[in-house]
Amino acid sequence: MKSDPIEEYDDVNEAAVADWKSETTTRERIKAVITRTTEPTPASEIAEQARASKPVVRDELTELTEIGLVEKIEGGQGALYKRNDQMYIYQQVLKLHDEYSEDELIETLQELKQTVSEIRTTYGVESPAELAQQLDPDDHEGWDDHTTWQTAQKNLYLTKAAISFHDARKVVV
């Protein structure tokens, strides 16, 4: 069996970017970057991250702003852009609603509540912030639990909202 030789790259990041560019369109890369952009950011920086030209990025950001996926903040030195967090949350909730039945979401909600309850009981604290204050820097298990709690808390909110969508659909439809 003969295999092709592995290409060598001077920089692994350059190789990853080259693959990303070859596997996606410019607009897909812009959307991927803006979806992760939670702080107001100039279009030029988004263009750099998306490996796209500034005019194309500005056009795409204008379109995404018009449909509500992006927020445009007028700054003293030009416009800044970030994802619209409300739309991002809405998309996450709809995705859960579409992918899971109401029963599956309720089961997940129970599991998430159990996870939070167990961590609360284990450490005798009421919040992830309170847990962080009591943990030593080298308490890896504690920090893992802290991360688990934060993730579970976020997923609790999204799961509750997805269940509410199921309930609302029963009323509206």
Explain what this protein looks like in three dimensions.
This protein has 173 residues and is mainly α. It has helices at residues 12-23, 26-35, 43-50, 54-66, 85-99, 102-123, 128-134, 140-172; strands at residues 41-42, 70-75, 78-83. Helices cover 69% and strands 8% of the residues. A 3-stranded antiparallel β-sheet has the order 1-3-2. Strand 2 (70-75) and strand 3 (78-83) form a beta hairpin. Helix 3 (43-50) crosses helix 4, helix 5 (85-99) crosses helix 8 (140-172) and helix 7 (128-134) runs antiparallel to helix 8 (140-172). The chain starts with 11 loop residues before the first helix and ends with a helix. The mean pLDDT is 90. This is ArsR family transcriptional regulator.
Q: Helices, strands, pairings?
A:
Elements lengths: L11 H12 L2 H10 L5 E2 H8 L3 H13 L3 E6 L2 E6 L1 H15 L2 H22 L4 H7 L5 H33 L1
Helix pairs in contact: 2-3, 2-4, 3-4, 5-8, 6-8, 7-8
**Main sheet: strands, sense, barrel:** 3 strands, antiparallel
| SS content category | mainly alpha
Could you give the distance between the termini? Answer: 60 Å
Helix count from the secondary structure assignment: 8
Strand order of the largest sheet: 1-3-2
Give the total of beta strands. Answer: 3
Shape: globular
SSE pattern: HHEHHEEHHHH
Which blocks of ≥5 consecutive residues have pLDDT under 50?
none
Name the helicity range. 55-70%
**pLDDT averaged residue by residue:** 90
Number of domains: 2
Radius of gyration: 22 Å
Strand content: 5-15%
